[in-house]
Amino acid sequence: MILKIGIGLVTSKLLAVFVGPSGMALVGNLRNFLTSLESISTLGFQNGIIKYTAENQKNENQLKKIIATVFISLLTIAIVLSCVLYFFATFWNTAIFGNNFDYVIVFKALGLALPWYAISVFMLAVINGLGQFKKVIWINIIGNAIGLLVSIGMILQYKTLGALLSLVISPALQFFVTVYFINKEINFLKIIRFHQFDFQIIKNLLSYSLMALVSSVLGPLVFLAIRKNVIEIVGLEQAGFWETITRISTYYMLFVTTILSVYFLPKLAVAKNNLETKKVFWSFYQTILPVFIVGLVIVYFLRFFIVNLLFTNAFLPVTTLFFWQLAGDVLKVASLILGYQFFAKKLTVAFIISELFSLAVLYFSSFYFINEFGIQGIVMAQAFDNFVYLLLLIVYFRKSLF
């Protein structure tokens, strides 16, 4: 986590110096698109792969079926998506960046890189399921380090184009690192056979992918649509300022989401009744949330220093976005612990309905707030959405809360 944040900070500084606010907005557009695309290419199977690999690591025949079935499925999906990206690159360039930018080569490169990325995600999930946590850590460390070097080289050489290409190429390079480590555990060439394909395995995995796909595909697409609206109303540079404050938010939010997934989610999963669930909820509100609020107060007063340190003077207008971003993040963190209950108890339908409702509120409120308040309107819309979502979850989980 610390390494990931460190690499993110270095990359942010490079982007600030060499591509500026406008380039930052384009990078944000591509990042949102990639998040959705990567989720589709892996079908949201990661958690399911880890679970079934862990359960069947001593059942060699079933493990072979799982590996062969998922590998063939993901490779097929990735190849189809690759063809769509490569041969319709001009369409995707216009859809993501608009008519004023020619980055067709980025989508052709993405088409070539996608299968490597999808398979590396699959193999990493298999290693994780086998309990080889040290190898997972080393793969991430080496992969992130390689990605950083590629980003530095390409941004220095090609500026905005280099930043976009590094986003596309770097994740795919992790394939080679993953292959090196997994070959010591499993001989893929001997396992992957078409006669091992089992549709029942896909059926079992689909139940795990539904929630992941709704949030990780629709969410980024909504943000992409909002950013395109921001660019049309207040300009590309202003959209870059929103992407900048979003990056800053991502860094400190990573601490909370890590604590939630590692510590609180397992506790919610084993809670047997409303009383036990209530203890977990209020434990979070009495310990983590107050510390987080204090941290954000400090961040607010250091906002000028933070912007100068991580970016450049050209990004100083970002300081006007801090208040509403931080207020919204407090509301978001307050709702996160409640939202994790959806995953802990596999409340799939309730999760999908609440997620769609939240995205709809964000999408439509952003239009109103941006027109009324300019670029500040988008962070105000996010804060408003987080407030509405928190109220919704409080009502839904009221028996577990009070």
Description:
The protein is mostly helical. It folds into two domains: 2-205, no CATH class; 237-401, no CATH class. Helices cover 86% and strands 0% of the residues. The chain has helices spanning 2-18, 20-41, 46-55, 60-87, 89-97, 104-129, 133-182, 188-191, 199-234, 236-270, 274-301, 303-310, 322-344, 348-373, 376-396, 398-401. The longest helix has 50 residues, at 133-182. The radius of gyration is 22 Å and the shape is globular. 41% of the residues are buried.
Summed up, what is this model?
This protein is 86% helix and 0% strand. By secondary structure, it is mainly α.
Number of strands: 0
Number of helical regions: 16
**Judging from the principal axes of the Cα atoms, what is the shape?**
globular
- Main sheet attributes: strand count, strand direction, barrel closure: none
- Low-pLDDT stretches are none
N- and C-termini, Cα separation = 34 Å
Q: Look at the helices and sheets and give the structural class.
A: mainly alpha
**Percent helix among the residues?**
over 70%
* Overall tally of domains: 2
Mean pLDDT: 85
Instruction: Report the C-alpha radius of gyration, rounded.
Output: 22 Å
Strand content: under 5%
Helix and strand arrangement:
Elements: H1 2-18, H2 20-41, H3 46-55, H4 60-87, H5 89-97, H6 104-129, H7 133-182, H8 188-191, H9 199-234, H10 236-270, H11 274-301, H12 303-310, H13 322-344, H14 348-373, H15 376-396, H16 398-401
